[in-house]
Amino acid sequence: MNAQVLIWSVIAAIAAVDVVMLPAQGMTIASRWPAFGLVVLMCSLSALVQRRNPAAARLAGAVAQIWALSDAGAILSYTAMAATPFAMADASLARWDAALGFDWIGWYAWVHAHPSVHFVLAAAYGSAPIQVVLLVLYFSYVDAKRVDELLLSGLLPIGIITPIMMLLPAVGAWSQHGVGTEPWRADILALRDHSLAVIGQTQGIISFPSYHTVLGVVLAYAARGRTWFIPSLCLNLLLIAAVMTEGAHYGVDLLSGLAVAVASIAATRWMLARAGRARPFRLPIALPARL
What we know:
Elements: H1 3-24, E1 28-29, H2 33-49, H3 54-83, H4 90-99, H5 104-113, H6 115-125, H7 128-142, H8 144-167, H9 173-177, H10 185-192, E2 198-199, H11 211-222, H12 229-241, H13 243-247, H14 251-276
Parallel strand pairs: 1-2
């Protein structure tokens, strides 16, 4: 199994769980035809230009994979939140922060007392999608294997984080500490009381572990060996530092996210090493070199 088949297999496995979980929770999804159409279009484009422009083909394939993963992963998080039988763990997560000596309120107050710091952290936190786009675009033309690594190491954590979230579901530290209301709070409460029957627009609803922390580590790791690694590392350290004030995460969310990131990168390296020894994947039809 080569890297491309491996990535699509993981995405298909997540989608298959969605197919099982949705009816089990009495839920449906709003029309996904535009998203499905984009994935099909990008896959078709990738196949058509594979021989003439492999870099463009990898870029189109990566767009399809990211879009499919984003949708399937978001639906999975919603069905998992609806399915979990466990009580909300916000109070426990706050106690764990305190046991570790972390003053969440103190950190939040300090950041908001320094507008320039708050601005920098908010900008770093919001940079994740832009970083993904730039890295995929760059590596598609420079090092396609790094694209595979980036996508797989960002994909595998979904399979780790979602079951943990089911054991320790949480709304977020803003509500727990009385400093604000999370934009996703209404969705979580509706999922918990099974009043959200149709999944339309989705939000990031997983608190513990922090996926933004995972993403910060993965993005910095993807930049290793490049002249701009240090700026990338600094940006993503700021992104990780921002998850508590900007993403309503607890300190333990961050720590657990770091552990998940390390496990995901190790698993990705192992899987891609095995995939690299496999026979290359070929489409079942022969496409002409020139159209």
